[in-house]
Amino acid sequence: MGMVFGKISVETPKYEVIRSFTDYEIRKYAPSVIAQVTYDPSQFKGDKDGGFTLLANYIGALGNPQNVKPEKIAMTAPVITKAPQSTAEQIAMTAPVVTKSRGGEEKKMVTMQFLLPDKYRKAEEAPKPVDERVEIIEEGERKYGVVRFGGVATEKVVEEKVEMLKKSLEREGYKIIGDFLLARYNPPWTLPMFRTNEVMIPIE
C-alpha cells in the first residue's frame, strides 16, 4: 500500500544541497555506476519506457537476474527521462533510472538507465549483463538545478517546470550545460496526489 500512497522505500541517489531557493535547489550528486540500454521505441510499440523490462531483467526485478553471477540487484529510484537530443550529440547521463532520447532524421533512439546501488563503486564491480544490449557505465560527480513537484508529470507540466527552472538558473548566473532530466520516483499505480517528480537541469 505504501507505493500507492507515494512511500519511497528504495535507495535514492546521494547528493549534497549546495544552495536552496524558494522553489528549487542546487545539488551536487556523488559518482555512481549505471546500467543502461539504448533502443528504438518503435520496437516497443512507440513506448519510450520500453527498455525498462530489459534493465529490470538484468537486476532480477521481474524474476531470475539476467547477469552472469547471477546476482539480484536492488531497485533504485527515481526513473529519469532525458529530453530528446540530436543523434550527432553525445551527452553523458547521470541518474538512477534514466531514459534519454536522441532524435535523428529517421528515428529516435532512447537510452534508459538504472542507477545501481551504492555498494557498486566501479563498473567492473557490477555483475556482467547476460543481454549484450545492457551496458554498465560510470558517472562522475555532477551538479544540477532541481525543482520538485507532485501530480502527474504531463508534457505540459514538465515544459512549464523546465522553463521556470531555466529562467531561475540563468537569473542567478548559473551556466546550463545540457538538457533536462525528468525524475519520477513512484510506480504508475501511485495515486497522482502522492507522486513525487523532479525536473533536473545540469549546470557547471
From TrEMBL:
InterPro entries: Reg_factor_effector_dom_sf (IPR011256), SOUL_heme-bd (IPR006917). Belongs to the HEBP family. PANTHER family: HEME-BINDING PROTEIN-RELATED (PTHR11220), SOUL HEME-BINDING FAMILY PROTEIN (PTHR11220:SF58). This is Heme-binding-like protein At3g10130, chloroplastic. It comes from Ziziphus jujuba (Chinese jujube).
